[in-house]
Structures are given as C-alpha cells and as structure tokens.
C-alpha cells in the first residue's frame, strides 16, 4: 500500500512539474514585437527580414516575423497568430492598405501599438505610427531624372505604376506627375500608352479618382511578368512616332528590368531611359551594364532602424519622435520619414559599395 502511495505521489509531483514547465515555456515563448511582411517572393522583403532580426539581436526584446505571401487573408491570420503570442507592438507592411485595416483593428482592440511600415494602412484609426521613405519624393526623383535625360520635343513617354491596392503607388505616381506634367503640357513629352493620362495632361494636381483612372491603364501590380506583358502590348500598338528615343517611368526595380528587356528587343527603339527604385542587386547590375538608367536608393537599413527604434521606445514606455504625418482617409498618422538617393552609373560605387550596402564582388564591370 505504501508503495502504491509513493507511485501516486511521484506521479503528482511529475504532473505538477510538467505544469510549471509548460507555464515557464509559455512565458518564455511570448513575443514583444510582431512583424508582418507582404511576401517572400521579392528580394526586398527577404533582406528586410534579416535586418529586422539583426536590429534586435542585442536587445532584451523578442520578435517574430511572418510573411503574408500576397494574401490579405493570410495577413490577417498572421496578425491573429502574433496577437495570441502576446505582442505589445505590431510592425506591418500591408499587402493591401485597405484590407489590412481589419487586421490592425483586431490588434488595436488588444492594446497593441500598430506601426505601419513602408506602406500606409488606410481607412482606419487603428494605426499609431508610420515609418516610411518620402514616397512623393521618390516619384519626383524618377520624374526629374526623365526630364534631365530627355532630348528635344514630343519625346514618347511610357507611364507605368505599382499596384492600385498599395497607397504608395499613388504617392509615387503623384510625385512623378507633379514634375512631369508641365513638361507634358509644353510638348517636351508625348504620352504613349495612357489615354486617361493624355486626357489629363493639362491638370497639374490630380485627384485620387483621376490617378485611379490612369493607374487602371498602366498598373503593373508590382509584378514583373505583368509589366513585361503590358510593355509588349503597348509597343505592339505604338506607331513609329511613339518609338525611337523614349523615356519610361517604371515604378520599381523588378518592373523596370522586365520593361527594359522588352524595349531593348524592339528594333524601332533607338534608346530608352528607364527609372526604378529599391536598389535591388539585379538592378544595380543592370545600371552598371547600362540596361537600367537609374534606381532610387531607399536605404532600408535606416528604415528598419527607425521602425525598431520606434518599437523599443514604445516598449520602454516612451513616445517615439516623428517628422511629419500622412492622412490615411480617416486620421493623420504621425510618421518618421527617411530620405532617398538617386543612383546611376556615375555614383553607384560611392552610394552602394563604399557605403557598405553591397560588396563589390557581387557585381561585374564596376
């Protein structure tokens, strides 16, 4: 009988120990900062993942990074997963700015501070902060580069844009249009591939609805394949006076390379100037080789540092510093803005190699 009691007592101790261990493990598994990024299919976001990990490597705080793979439903599921892990701060780059509203509202109800990262979450008051590059300035830099490299008049201008679901696509286009429009109106440029843009060529400040109509014709959805198909369609339909020496507003590096490849194979295109952004490794090689004219370098190291610095300040009980604000359709969201740099063949080594962003050995022809 005594032996039986000893076995029962031992079992009770083991159950109690297992319960304590589970409780400790649960506590240890809690995450302070949850990060949701849009997709693993673009180099930019994979690079961000590692930089976020590095940014908290020496911190007492923990983080978990999840990818939404271009799905708003998966994005919402990711946010719910992180809420259940006890996060205090959510850093999220939305796949679709409008659709992400429901996900961050769920986080806000749990008292979680929401930081919109790189892309603004729209039409909700559940966003506390926004960490971004000056997106209007990105578009303006792209547009100005085309102006600076155009010769003569009636230069064919091919317009392309990002995804209509991404608020940044509108900001990039807004910035580009502001500098390009006077040169379209005075005949320096002739719009080659958008009847909506042609109809608005004398309008300096476009409304959101007017931009939507243009984007409806020239969106790439940030997809290089879609950009390639659109470029092929546009060139097939273009008359000879819309070929020769042309300029191309491409919204980012992935679409820029795809579009450039199409234009480079058309025998009636004598030269092209094409913009980009993000300083993707493949595009830097294109810039070195003369296949892509420029890229707008957004030093993601700074953006990640700003986002994580903001998160740590919040976790420490402080109030983050901001440098401006953006209206998301419901509220003005306080923002921390990071500057951008135009990179071309002339300064690519100084800006990207000498600064330590990339290694010289990753490229040929430097």
TrEMBL record:
Annotated Pfam families: Peripla_BP_4
Protein name: Sugar ABC transporter substrate-binding protein
SUPFAM superfamilies reported in the protein's UniProt record: Periplasmic binding protein-like I
Cellular compartments annotated: Cell envelope
Keyword vocabulary terms for this entry: Signal
PANTHER family: D-XYLOSE-BINDING PERIPLASMIC PROTEIN (PTHR30036:SF1)
Domain Periplasmic binding protein, first and last residues per copy: 33-318
Signal peptide range: 1-22
InterPro entries cross-referenced by the UniProt entry: Bact_Solute-Bind_Prot2 (IPR050555), Peripla_BP_I (IPR028082), SBP_2_dom (IPR025997)
